[in-house]
Amino acid sequence: MRILVACANGFAVSQMMKGKIEQALLELNCEKEVLDEFAIEGGVKVPTGYDVIFCPEGLVKRFRSEDNKDTVIIGMKNILSVNEAKEHLIKHGLCNK
Considering the domain 2-91 in this protein, what is its CATH number? Predict the structure, then answer.
């Protein structure tokens, strides 16, 4: 599973968020191929080719596009919540309990 973790700006926050997603994946024994982070700043083009994108709820619309039509886009209320990440992974059938 190719996963992208994105935030509004700056890599520090996306790296913290990435750590929480990694922890959720480990706790659920979920496999991943790639776990990248990305900061949407200015007019930067949204990356494609990922199975899953984790981002704050307010950024979900920025990632919805024809290029990402097969990508699961997960908007997080609390971007640093391991439990919320686990709930989304299970809810979307990406990991088992």
Answer: 3.40.50.2300
